[in-house]
Amino acid sequence: MTFEASAKLGGGAAGTRFDAIDPRARVVAAIGFAVTVVAMDSVASVALALVMAFAVAVAARLSARVLARRLLALEGFMAVLLATLPFSVPGDAVVALGPLEATREGLLLALLIALKANAVVVMVLAQVGTLEPVRLGHALNRLGVPQNFVVLLLITVRYIAVFQDEYRRLRQAMTARAFRLRSTWHSWRSIGWLMGMLLVRSHDRAARILQAMKCRGFAGRFPVMDDLRLRGPDVVYVLAIVAPVVALGLWGSL
Amino acid sequence: MLAAGGAFSLGALAVSLGRLKPEDIPKTAVFAAVFFVCSLITVPVGPTTVHPILNGLMGLVLGWAAVPAIAVALLLQMVFLGFGGLTAYGVNLANVALPALVCALVVRPLLLRAHSPGRAGLLGALASVGAVLATSLLIALALALSDPAYLTAAKLVVATHVPLMVAEAAIGAAAVSFLWRVSPDIIGGAK
Prior knowledge:
The complex is a heterodimer of chains A (254) and B (191). Chain A is mainly α. Chain A has helices at 4-10, 23-39, 43-59, 64-88, 104-127, 133-142, 147-176, 185-215, 232-252; strands at residues 93-97, 100-103. In chain A, strand 1 and strand 2 form a beta hairpin. Residues 1-8 of chain A have low confidence and may be disordered. A two-stranded antiparallel sheet of chain B has the order 1-2.
């Protein structure tokens, strides 16, 4: 089985020093970082944590364009929250917008949340997003995630690329028949049919996959072929990520 | 709030993983992949565009297996596309998977008794709209419960999901009536 699709998912460069680090160490470091950052309540600490996350992203050679696009999407998601907070938190008014007054406390809280969310997302994308999904699956398995969840994850990743191609072919066929995706009932219904068609085809394919897996003796688990061994540098790596951010948190709460 | 959502998700995930038979894994995974691809489609609605959540449809197609399928899809989105924070994963999963589960347990049996593609489509639309509405309400609830300062945002979150509900109604109706005619066994019916 090839997982070439997987490399495209995250958008990191291959062949960095990061590949040598045990994927479990990277998952644990990302979780440690996220939990600590979310618990912080000083803007300065979180800002420094964000700088740290960007430094890791640079070291992991995460493509700047991909990262910018992901962060823009994140900002879009949080727009509602960030735009309303300054007006809904009580405190000293700084700016008045008609009857609405933005407070200093509200602006600070919005800034804090934006910085936290960005720091966590940058760190996760840099640490875990640059892993090949297969290695992520193995890492999760070794970290105690149930086996059938990991198998599910691995097969899903494998078939995302397949159905992306299938989707593209169907859309191409529609385009050839002068279909344009617009804001009309006709467009939405056509997309519904397209999804229905994808489901029908995937249903048949799933039956064949199951037969093929049964032929190879599948009984609910894959033999996990990895040689993951936690070595000294991996532990040092986790500490190098988590210790500074814990220090930042303590410094911020002084 | 994060802890409560996380605990709920963990429980639902454990139950649904227990119900997931080994021979159902390929089907669940393949459907999860299809829904992942479909949720990346940018659908124009009026002046804006939306990405469908499709949790209603997932519930109808996958039943209980919708929970691990959604868990996998959200994990991949979080890790590789940067959608959603790591610490909010549990709450996110609950917000999306709970409505899917309700669709699976309540609407799916009705779908089995539907006797025309139009009726099936209507149920598809209802499930899709209901699931998106429920997800937006759960997000709003989670926001409002974590801090009263989020109350304004919580109300707006529901409003911003209205265009999505419109598009998902049409998509869900078309997809379900299509499946009802073409391959009823996918939505639990006999061929």
